[in-house]
Amino acid sequence: MVDNGKVVVVGAGVMGHGIAQIFAQGGFRVSLVDINQKALDKALKLIKSSLNTMAEEEYLEQPVEKILDLISLTTSLQEGANDADIAVEAIAENVEAKKDMFAQLDTYCPPKTLLASNTSYLKIFDFVETSRPDKVLITHWYAPPQLVPLVDVVGGPKTDKRALESMVQALKKIGKRPILMKKYIPGYAVNRIQRALYREVNFLIDNDYITPKQLDEAVRVGLAFRMMVLGVVARYDFSGISTRTRHPPGFEEIPLDYEYKKHAELIKKGFLGVKTGRGFYDYKGKSEEEMYRERDIRLIEVAKTLKEIDERGPLEGT
Questions:
Q1: Is the peptide bond preceding residue 144 cis, with omega within 30 degrees of 0?
Q2: What is the CATH number of domain 6-180?
Q3: Phi, psi at residue 80, to the nearest 5°?
Q4: Contact call for residues 12 and 44 (beta carbons, < 8 A)
Q5: What is the mean pLDDT of the chain?
Q6: Tens digits of per-residue pLDDT, 240-267?
Q7: Distance between CA 62 and CA 283 in Å, rounded?
Q8: How many helices (H) and strands (E) does the chain have?
Q9: Secondary structure of residue 151 in the 3-state scheme
Q10: Structurally, what CATH architecture does the domain formed by 190-285 represent?
Q11: Among the listed residues 144, 133, 123, the one whose alpha carbon sits nearest the alpha carbon of residue 188
């Protein structure tokens, strides 16, 4: 599977087109499937833009055209699933939709195919029904999937360990750094941390302690600056583990079910972020493609720096 394999990616949205792109960059033949031809056309445009940005930043090992030649687009799941080694479902977070999709994948994919879901919060092992539960697993990607190294890999009670190992090896081949979770939990690790973080973000903004711009600057030069080297656990070792085992005074005033006021206001106004041109920030009429390009150039610089840091080897004990 690891060499010269084929991957079918179902769903050409924000995650799907990036997943298709990175598998092609890793040398896999890829079939990107969506029922909407317009979604496929937009996906191809975004893939080309992303690859061109990577080429300009000297972050590609293969010519753009060679990578694009490995990607085919189709509205036919049967056609896309033909001879696939890996199937990645990247459709909406809807139980019935995913249940139906896995049934179709089980029908159209050959027996060898691993069936993976990109779900963030659904425990697919409780509701998808296939003839191959030993090959059903989760690969949870992070946006933009063609650049963020992390992929969570999770098996269910019937998933074969060999299937998990095959997926881990395939992900490593395309340059990912998969984390094989010991067991399923909604949101995995990073999404759970982000969810707790977002509660604090909204509390600070809603109660006018800080502006969105100030908060982002504080996180970039403080929290994220150390995270690139120490993560979130080793930092406590370097700072010194406190004898305190509960929140310090003041933190208990933020309820776990805190309702996001500014967030709700933005939704009401239709300000949904980059895709609508406004969110917490005003993107001054720049298109999604322009904003993705600017983001990707900066992420590529981070990726290059991370590689240099990793080449120094781990800190003692980490």
A1: yes
A2: 3.40.50.720
A3: -65, -35
A4: no
A5: 94
A6: 877 666 767 777 667 778 899 999 999 9
A7: 33
A8: 12, 8
A9: strand
A10: Orthogonal Bundle (1.10)
A11: 123
